[in-house]
Structure formats: C-alpha cells, structure tokens
Amino acid sequence: MQAAAFAGPRRALLRNQDGNHEALKLFTQVPARPPWYKEGWCLFRSEDAAEGARVAAFDFDKTLHHGGMAWRLSSAHIPGRLRQLHEEGYRIVIFSNQHGPGRQRTREAMQAEVRDITARFDDFASFCRVPLQIFVAAARGDVGDAFRKPNIGMWELLCSSRCSRGTLPDPALSFYVGNSAGRKTDGNDVDRQFAQRLGLKFYTEAFLTSRGA
Ligand SMILES: [Mg+2]
User: Fold this and answer.
1) CA of 59 to the centre of ligand 1 (A)
2) Residue of 92, 80, 89, 84 lying closest to 128 (CA atoms)
3) Would you say which domain of life the source belongs to (predicted)?
4) Can you give the residue range of the structural domain that contains 177?
5) Which residues crowd ion ligand 1, with CB under 5 Å?
6) Looking at the 3D structure of the chain, how many domains does it have?
7) 95-112 as b/e, with b when 16 or more CB fall inside 10 Å?
C-alpha cells in the first residue's frame, strides 16, 4: 500500500520533469530577438549593463498591472512612481515568473509564446518610458528551476557582467515589491520568500498606491 501511495506522485513528478525537459529543448531552439536574450530558462532584457547599488525591484502580474483589456488603466499611476524612483537613483527591475513556455509542445507554439511574452513586457516598458531591466523565469513551477522565484537565479543574473557594471546591486540598499505574500487570498508566498532569501526589504503591491509606504 505504502509503495503505491508514493509511486503515484513520483510518476507524476518524473512525467513533469520529462515534459519540462522537452519544453526547455524547444525554448533553447527558439530565438529571442534583441533587446531580449536568454539564459537557461530565463528571458531577460537589459539594454545596457546598468550601474548602481540601489535596486527597486517589482513582480509583474497583479503588482504592476491587473491584466485584461484595461491594464493601462489599472497601471495609470505606475509610470510616475517608477520615474520618481529612477530619479532618486534606483535601478528599476522586474522579476516575473511566467507559466506559458513550460506548457508548449511544438516549436511554433513556443515561438509564439516567447513572442507574446516579450511583446507584453515591451509594451509595458514603452508605457512607462523609464529604463527597465526585465527578467522572466519561464520554467514550469513544479521543477524547482534556479531562475524561478522563490529561487534567486534572476537576481544573480542581474548581478552578472551581462546586466551590471561598476557598482553591483546591494540587497541592503534595495527592496522588492510583490503580491504573492502568503496572505489568505494569495495563491502562494513566492514573492515574500524571494525577498527573504536575498535579504531584500519586502513590500506588497500596496507600496505602489500608498506613497512612501
Ligand atoms: Mg504577481
């Protein structure tokens, strides 16, 4: 009985890992167009390697926007807030987990998925008109990829020479804002955990509506 009880979840995990492996193979075959690049299961956009110890970092979905056709309205106050932080000397960085690529099973579907994701973030960047460094973890959530929050691979990539020069980001001088904080209505607490693992001060999305929270 006991063996059977364990075999089910284990088989499911192996199946997921196989699926993820296949999807990753497709992901590596699909080109990312500049200003986007790929590193493992991470898509990132960092036009120039930026300098500076202070980082204002944000989750994307349900933190910087609320999706749907009216996302610009739900984010109307965001560009000003980000611009203000930029003027105060912060680098503005987005760390986002996305689920789409891990589900794709053909090269065409993967290509379309990567194109859609990068276009969505590009659209947001031009809406904000402020320099942004954007990191997107694209692996499935059930395989513990190093880039996927709460793992810290995206922060490490930010600190690499591909994305940073001169003064490196300093967690003690930086903060992170996300909506997955382990509250009753949150699906999980990956944003809070991500901040904790890095020693970043953590705020929920209320940071963006209450000035100076
Ligand atoms: Mg979110």
Assistant:
1) 6
2) 80
3) Eukaryota
4) 2-208
5) 59, 61-62, 179
6) 1
7) bbbbeebbebeeeebbbe
* Tokens (6 digits) for 91: 């680098």
Pull the structure tokens for residue 26.
């497709």
In a domain, residue 213? The reply is: no
- Residue 174 exposure: Cα atoms within 13 Å on the Cβ side: 26
Residue 105 lies in a domain: yes
CB 49 within 8 A of CB 163: yes
Give me ligand 1 centre to Cα 206, in Å.
13
> What string of pLDDT tens digits covers the 213 residues of the chain?
444 555 666 666 556 666 677 888 899 899 899 999 999 999 999 977 788 999 999 999 999 998 877 888 888 999 999 999 999 999 999 999 998 888 899 999 999 999 999 999 999 999 999 999 999 999 988 888 999 999 999 999 999 999 999 899 999 999 999 999 999 999 899 999 999 999 999 999 999 986 544
Question: What is the CATH classification number for the domain harbouring 90?
Answer: 3.40.50.1000
134 CA → ligand 1 middle, Å: 14
